[in-house]
Amino acid sequence: LTAMGEPSMDPTMPAADSTAQQDSLFSMMDVFLISLITGLFTYWFFFRKKKEEVPDLPKMQSVAAPVRDSSFIEKMKKTGRNIVVFYGSQTGTAEEFANRLSKDAHRYGLRGMAADPEEYDLSDLSRLSEIDKSLAVFCMATYGEGDPTDNAQDFYDWLQEADADLSGLRFAVFGLGNKTYEHFNAMGKYVDKRLEELGAQRIFELGLGDDDGNLEEDFITWREQFWPAVCEHFGVEATGEESSIRQYELVVHTDVNMNKVYTGEMGRLKSYENQKPPFDAKNPFLAQVTENRKLNEGGERHLMHLELDISNSKIRYESGDHVAVYPANDSSLVNQIGEILGTDLDTVMSLNNLDEESNKKHPFPCPTSYRTALTYYLDITNPPRTNVLYELAQYASDAGEQERLRKMASSAAEGKALYLSWVVEARRNILAILQDMPSLHPPIDHLCELLPRLQARYYSIASSSKVHPNSIHICAVMVEYETKTGRLNKGVATNWLKSKVPEQNGSSSLVPMYVRKSQFRLPFKPSTPVIMIGPGTGIAPFIGFIQERAWLKQQGKEVGETVLYYGCRHEREDYLYREELAHFQKEGVLTQLNVAFSRDQAEKVYVQHLLKKNKENVWKLVNEGMAHIYVCGDARNMARDVQNTFYEIVSEFGNMSQPQAVDYVKKLMTKGRYSLDVWS
């Protein structure tokens, strides 16, 4: 090889020169080889000597490995548990259901524990049969487009790759999903099917909860049939009625160092004062609001554009990702709860888990004040679930109110109907229930134990990191509506965001946030055409996409057709980002801008109608141009109508039957050419 010092022979070289060259070459080669062999031998000799001089140490295998903290089996044995309820939870509901099931177990002479699969080694499932009358229950929520929740991702990956023998495992699954989504309850269905494939024994049928209907009722219905099946399988009987068992005990701190008290942090104490990356759900970054402007020119709604400064945070994002923000409850709601319960909200307290072996020491960061808990940690605006009503009933001094609460928490048809109408459909939150039941005065610490955690809110990022590396943009509509009881309910996060104005009088508005990665991505090749469909605030990720395509074009890249289908109610009222879109169109980045104004004429016009109008061009882009399709916005109606429109277009121009067209679109989804970022 030339690289090793063997020059190529020139055929025109004179013979004598060639011979001399060869002699020289061989002598050089001899020297090189002898040097190489000598060097290798010397290196081996000294290396071998060094190894011999190293004293013999005990081998790692000979040291008994300590019991891993991640073994839920060892923990169950140590604490006398025989039922473990794993939860895959993104918004806290699956975790709440898991806690309720684990508490139920004591009624049957069994002991349960709720467990986060992220904290344990799930390969230990094969050992669960070592425990008598053992059972694994899985409350699994589906996130996004059939994805596992963040905390169940490792479990999902393990299930896909596992070849474990789970023949001794007994299990049951309750899935939490939403029928408006394409992949309804995909995670629950997969876990149920996969566990059976690995040899596990299903002791009760898969439960499918639908959040688009009445998730609470679905859970109660499944649960009231699940426990009799457990009793029959293990030959046990209920030991009594459901009873109120406190999980946490109250400790009031009268003399406490305020530097040790949580004031709204999600994880580490003082993390908002001393920010350290990396930033995530347990360690959010406090981003400064640099812009907050109203987007719409008229109408009753308030649509807004916010910009969050992420300079020096080391946060990286891509177009299509989601930003999660932690909101705060309205202080007037918090104060009213305090007044009704006659509590000093500034009392500093801790709620400590009575189960000392539990990984969850407190229901929220403690010590803290009741005011902080009700403002930053607890959900006080959503209608409470039936288990909360059941626990609260004991604190109603009026027999009629107590009976009403117990009835709504029961599994009787009449009780379910009453809960649906009086709580769910009337959108009564905990404050409204306390107001409408004057004799109900629960201790505030028990109320704080019962209320679910206030969750982060996710928004599609409305910017490109190529153009705005130090800023994340949000597009949102303020939620506000009147309930059947005449109350004005306001969305927690959007009303809180509305109040976040850029720096004024030296004080800045800060938003705790982090970025959640998404699969909603522009094509790898910029030359690939894209069709984007996003009415209303569904336009958010497409502002980022268009910014990125414009940036790529400026870099000299060949950028394919960029087509947008956008919709709003009225052209003169809520046409979002009108000027920006006009600019992108003028620059030639946005090659097609199709806007549906639904209420500017007698007959309503939506994005799917414009797709039908341009069906030939749409088919050409998809079929010949290999375009990628993106849909963002309402899952319940818009996303479904748009998908049906694509079925029609594919059927007509692809000469396919309806089932073939459906299969064609489903294959586009599988290949990543039809992507959804939708909500209901």
Automatic annotation (TrEMBL):
Every Flavodoxin-like domain range: 83-227
One Pfam short name: NAD_binding_1
InterPro entries xref list: CysJ-like_FAD-binding, FAD-bd_FR_type, Flavdoxin-like, Flavodoxin/NO_synth, Flavoprot_Pyr_Nucl_cyt_Rdtase, Flavoprotein-like_sf, FNR_nucleotide-bd, NADPH_Cyt_P450_Rdtase_alpha
Keyword flag Oxidoreductase: yes
Keywords: Endoplasmic reticulum, FAD, Flavoprotein, FMN, Membrane, NADP, Oxidoreductase, Transmembrane, Transmembrane helix
Domain FAD-binding FR-type intervals: 282-523
Cofactor: FMN; FAD
Protein name: NADPH--hemoprotein reductase
Organism: Ploceus nigricollis
